[in-house]
Amino acid sequence: MTFRALFISLLSVLFICGIGYINDFVLKLESISNGHQIPILVIGVMVVFVMTINPLLKKINGKLALTAAELAVIFTISTCAVGIPGRALMEQFAQIVVMPYHWDRVTPGYHSKNMLSYYPKGTLVDPEPQDEVVNRFITGSDKPKVPPATLKEWLSLKLGQVPWKQWMPPLKTWLPFIFLTTIAMACLALILHRQWSDHEHLQYPIANFAESIIRQTPGKCFNETFHNRLFWIGFIIILVIRVNNGLCKWFPDELIPVKMNHSLWAFASRWPQLHRNPWAYGLMVLDIFPLVIAFAFFLSSEISFALGISQILWAAFCIPVIGMGINLNTDYDIGGWQGWNRVGSYLAFGLIMFYAGRHYYLHLMKKAFFLDRLPWLRDPSAETNETASSPGAANAMRILFVALFLLCVMAIRMGLSWPIAIGTILLMILTYVITARISAETGLFFIQPGWQPIGALMALFGSYALSPSNIFLSALLCAVLCIDQSQALLPYLINGLKLGASTRVEPRKLTHVNTLFYFVGIIVAIFITVTVIYDYGTDADYWWSYHRLPTMAIRATEPALLQLNASGNLEESESLTGLQRILRMQPQPAFLWAAGIGFFGVILLSFLRLHLRWWPLHPCFFLVWATYPICIFSHNFLLGWFIKKM
C-alpha cells in the first residue's frame, strides 16, 4: 500500500464527497452513485485510466505506472465513498434534521398532534430564527447585490449563510451514531471476508469484474482482458448501440434507434389477472441491460436462474393470493406484507450463514474474548483452514461488540426502550450483512431489502406494546442510518477486500485506511452539502428527501397514536417497562404468515439445494423477489442463464 495510492484515494474521496450533492441536486447530472455497487463514475474512470494513461506511463518509465495492488486500493476506497453523498447519508440527512419544522407548519394534522414533541432534544436543528434556519434551507439565500470580488470574500459569504450554531446539536447527536455504525460495518467486513472468500468460496462477480480490468500482464502494456477479441467485439457493439441511441435524440429524422426495451403488455389483454401483480410493470416490460446479462452468464446457473425466474414465480404466487382478498401492499420505509416476507427470509438466511460458518465464527469469538486460553475451551483444531481468520479479525470482533453496545446505549439514552433499541440495531446490522451477501454471491449491483427494522418491530410488537414514542424513535434511527443498505459501507467494502486479496493487499490495512478516509468523506460531505443547500435551497422536486424521509417517523407513529388515543391506552402504553413490552407483544397474523413463508421458504430451498444435485433454485430467490431492482433486472438474468445453457 504505497503513499501515491493513498494520496490518489484521498483526492478521490474528497472529490466524490465534495462534488456529489452539487452534481446530483444542483447541476442534476448523472448521479455520482449511479450504478450502485458498480458506480459508473469510478469504474468508468478506472477503465479509461488502464486503457490510456497507465500504458503511457509504462512506456515512459515502468515505475511510473500504477500497479494492480495500487489500483485495487484506489478502486475500493473510491467505491466506498460513493454512497456518502448518496443514500448512505447526505441525500437525506440534512433534510431529516430540518424539514420536519416545515411539514409541521404546513400540515395541520401534524401540528394538532404536537408531533414535533416526539423528537428528542438535539436530534433536530434549533429552528430559531426561523427565516435563517428553516426558510433559507428550503428556498436558498438571497443573492448579493454586489458579487464578492475575491475568493476569500466568496467563501466568507457562502459559509456565513449557514447557521452553524443551530446545526451543532444535531451534529453532536448523530455523528456518533454514524461513526459507530461505520465502524461496525468495517469490522463486519473484516470478520466476514475470510469465511466468505476462502471457506465458502463465494463467486464475488463484482470484485472479479473489477479485477479483470486492473489485472496486469508482465511485459505487456495491457492485461489479457484487453487482448481478448471477444471483449472488443462486445465492447464495440454496445458502444455503437449507445452512441447511436444518444445521437437519435439529437437527429431523430436521420438515425434509427436500437430498441433496448420491449413491451409485453399484449399478454395482459389475454390474461387480465396480470394487472393484479403490484410489480406487473417490471414483469411486462423487457428492458435490456447488457451488463446484467454478462454477469448472469458468468454466475452459477442456479443463481442466475433463481434471479431470473423470481418475478415470474412472484406473479404466480401473488395473483391468486390477491384474488383471495389478501392485501400484499408494502410501504418501503414503514412495512407491509412483502417487506415482512423478506424479514423472515433475511432471518433464515442469516441463521444458515452462521450455521455454515459456525466453526469459524465460534473460534473467532473465543479468540476475541480470550476464551481459547482456558484449558476446557481450548480448540485442538484452532489453526485449521476451516477456522483460520484474517489478521485483525479478532480485534474487529472485539470492536464490533463495543460499537454495537454503544449504539444500543445511545439509542436507549435517546429514549428507546431497551428491547426496541436492541431489536432496531440488530435488525439494522442484519440488513447490512445480507445485502453484502447478496452482492458477493449473486453480483446483483442494485439491491433493495425493501424493509426497515421499524416495520418488522411494529408488526411483531403491536402499537400498544411498542408505544408511539418507541415507534417514532426507531423510525428516526432507520431513516438516518439504514434507509438504503445497498449504498452503505459494508457491501462496497466486502467486494473491495476480495479485490484487494486478489492483488495481495492485506485486508486489515485496507480496512483501516478505508475507514479513516470514509470518516473524512463524511465530514467533508456534511460541511459542503449543508453550505450548498443554504445557498441554493433543497431540491423540492425530489420527494424522497424533501418529504418522505423527513416525515417517515411521523407517518409511522400517527396511526398508532390515533388508535391508542381512541382506546384510552396511550399513557399506559408509554409507561410500560422493557420486559412488559416483550410480554405484551401482539404480532399481527399477516406478519407471522408473511415472515413464516419467507423463513421456511429459505430453509426449504437450502435443504433441497444441499440434498438434490439437480435442484435449480438458490434460496437467494426469497431475498430479492418483489423488489424494484430484480423487477427491472429479472428478464436479463433469465436471458443470461438461457444463453449459458444453449
Kindly provide the radius of gyration, computed on alpha-carbon positions and rounded to a whole number of angstroms.
26 Å
Read across the widest sheet, the strand sequence of neighbours is: 1-2
Percent helix among the residues? Answer: 55-70%
Number of helices: 31
| Helix vs. strand class | mainly alpha
| Major sheet size, sense and barrel closure | 2 strands, antiparallel
Strand content: under 5%
Low-confidence parts? none
Q: End-to-end span in angstroms? A: 44 Å
The global form is globular
Layout: helices, strands, pairs:
Elements lengths: L2 H24 L13 H21 L7 H15 L10 H4 L2 H8 L1 H5 L17 H10 L11 H10 L3 H36 L5 H10 L14 H22 L10 E3 L2 H5 L9 H4 L1 E3 L2 H9 L2 H23 L6 E2 L3 E2 H20 L1 H11 L24 H22 L3 H25 L10 H9 L1 H4 L1 H14 L7 H14 L4 H30 L6 H6 L3 H16 L2 H5 L3 H6 L5 H23 L9 H4 L3 H18 L1
Antiparallel strand pairs: 1-2, 3-4
Molecular structure report:
With 646 residues, the protein is mostly helical. Helix 19 packs parallel to helix 22 (468-481). It has helices at residues 3-26, 40-60, 68-82, 93-96, 99-106, 108-112, 130-139, 151-160, 164-199, 205-214, 229-250, 266-270, 280-283, 290-298, 301-323, 337-356, 358-368, 393-414, 418-442, 453-461, 463-466, 468-481, 489-502, 507-536, 543-548, 552-567, 570-574, 578-583, 589-611, 621-624, 628-645, and strands at 261-263, 285-287, 330-331, 335-336. It is 67% helix and 2% strand. It has 31 helices and four strands. It has a two-stranded antiparallel ribbon. A two-stranded antiparallel ribbon has the order 3-4.
